[in-house]
Amino acid sequence: MKANSQFDYIIVGSGLSGLHLSYSFLNDKYFENHKILIIDKLDSIKEDNFFSFWERGIGKWDSIIKNKWSKGKFFSKYGEINMDFSSYNYKTLISSDFSKYVKDKLKKNKNFKFVKDTVLKIRNEKNNIIVVGNKRNYQASHVFDSSIQNKIKKELYNHPSLKQHFLGWVVKTKNNEFDEKSFVFMDYRIRDKNKTAFTYVLPLKKNKALIEYTYFSKDVCKKKVYEDYLKKYLIKYYNDPDYEIIKSEFGVIPMTSYPFYKNSTKNITKIGAAGGWIKPSSGYSFKICEINSLKIIDNIKKGKKLSIKPKKKYQFLDKILLGVLSEYNHKGEIIFYKMIKRNSTSNVLRFLYEKSSLFEEIKIIISLRSIDFVKVFIKSIFRKAL
Ligand SMILES: Cc1cc2nc3c(=O)[nH]c(=O)nc-3n(C[C@H](O)[C@H](O)[C@H](O)COP(=O)(O)OP(=O)(O)OC[C@H]3O[C@@H](n4cnc5c(N)ncnc54)[C@H](O)[C@@H]3O)c2cc1C
Asked: What average pLDDT does the segment 348-359 reach?
């Protein structure tokens, strides 16, 4: 019998990655006699954000998704592209629905325990891991940790990196302005000329949509900058001055090639953003958290190492793409145009989830050919040699 404070696994953080991992433990009979503690400094998430992802066919979150699309659009001054999402549907859900759905299921199982506490430190002690909380200490043989220390947050930007920063509004229009069947993946027609910046539109109903103005750049803008672009977009493309803003969401997501996996140890695995589970070149993490959680479950059962190291080829490609976007930040429009125009949507989506074949990767690299990539590639070799 284990002491009250002793667990098989402790998960620090009940955000996106902590809940994906907990849910994967819950759904695997192998762990039905394991005691799992989930510690979070907050009772529940403060914000209701839209989380979007793509997947093949029916998925485990279909009962809580707000909408899904099999068609998308890409707009730029180089042309308009119809994107085919019929193989990988693009889906969106609300973060609090996801959290409630998973937590309700976990709370029905006596092996899972939730504690509200702030984790101050995690240390190794005689093959046991001690999680030092603000209120008390907890012990487990393995800890999965989604908290990020401040010193790491500062380090992120010493590697090729950008920030994905955006302001989104859920708007309601008087007339039926939106096509519910098709969403806008990226629209560069109204943009900050010096940066990679675009509008993203998720139609939720005929008269309701989430519209976001998004940057992939070094620095966050003043709120008014995003607001002005959103207003311009709404007037120019939907022609409805009487729209109502129902909700707004603001986010800053790190896009970095920092090697997060190096912060994991034998018995402490960093997960989520802290483990590098955000795709550096796109900022997407919802599905990656699900995929990596299942990989961890599988690795435990096979007695393999638990930290998930990205494959070298993806690390390299992300680094080059981030390097090009950092040095030539205004060129995102042409880079993404070439990538989407010259490859099938399914190929691009598989590439972004690191599921592409070598042939598909070569095709993407060839499609992006430009002198900027060559320059950044040579620079990266030169930096390594120094
Ligand atoms: C507005 C917005 C929209 C987004 N949209 C998308 C999207 O469409 N698709 C997508 O894939 N991603 C999206 N993201 C990104 C996504 O939210 C993050 O990448 C993801 O939440 C990272 O998961 P995580 O588990 O690492 O962190 P979090 O979800 O932030 O969870 C970390 C948890 O750990 C807890 N915690 C932290 N430190 C401690 C501590 N010391 N002690 C105890 N608890 C602690 C926190 O309270 C938190 O609950 C969006 C982000 C924002 C802000």
From this structure: 85
Task: Let me know whether 215 and 336 are in one domain.
Answer: no
349 pocket-lining for ligand 1 (C-beta < 6 Å): no
Give the gyration radius of the chain's Cα atoms. 22
Regarding the beta carbon of 51 and ligand 1, being less than 6 Å apart is answered yes
In a domain, 307, yes or no: no
Task: Read off the pTM.
Answer: 0.93
User: Residue 60 to residues 66, 71, 85: CA-CA distances in angstroms?
Assistant: 14, 21, 18
Q: How far apart are CA 200 and CA 209, in angstroms?
A: 10
Q: Which domain holds residue 335?
A: 312-385
What's residue 37's pLDDT?
A: 97
Q: Is 383 exposed, middle or buried (0-12, 13-18, 19+ CB in 10 A)?
A: exposed
Write the CATH number for 173. Answer: 3.30.9.10
Distance 253 CA to ligand 1 centre (A): 9
Indicate if the pLDDT at residue 376 is higher than 80: no
Please tell me the predicted confidence (pLDDT) of residue 374. Answer: 66
Closest residue CA from atom 53 of ligand 1: 251
Any bridge partners for residue 206, and if so which? Answer: none
* 214 and 292 assigned to the same domain: no
Element containing residue 252 per DSSP (H, E): strand 244-256
Same-domain status, 213 and 251 = yes
